[in-house]
Write a structure and sequence with these properties.
By secondary structure, the protein is mainly α. The chain has three helices and two strands, in the order αββαα. Helix 1 (about 5-15) runs parallel beside helix 3 (about 55-75) and helix 2 (about 35-45) runs antiparallel to helix 3 (about 55-75).
Length: about 80
């Protein structure tokens, strides 16, 4: 497993995940953050070096940025 994937796993395990539907970019909505994150991480654990799955990396990064942004606004 890559260091970045481990960092993302640690991050998502340490924060409260968004409830309900939210948007991480125009036209991309996530309705179940926990399932989306778990599926992306599992996929990347299996296919971490396959560039066909780059979208999973980007989605996890966008979700992380969304959570960080909302934590800053709330705190």
């Amino acid at each position: 497993m890559s260091a970045e994937l481990q960092e993302l796993k640690d991050f998502f395990n340490s924060v409260e995940l968004p409830k309900g539907t939210f948007s991480v970019k125009p036209g991309e909505y996530i309705s179940d953050a926990e399932t989306c994150i778990r599926t992306a991480i599992t996929t990347l654990e299996i296919h971490h070096s396959n560039t066909s799955f780059a979208g999973y990396w980007e989605r996890l990064r966008r979700i992380k940025a969304y959570i960080e942004e909302n934590q800053q606004q709330a705190g």
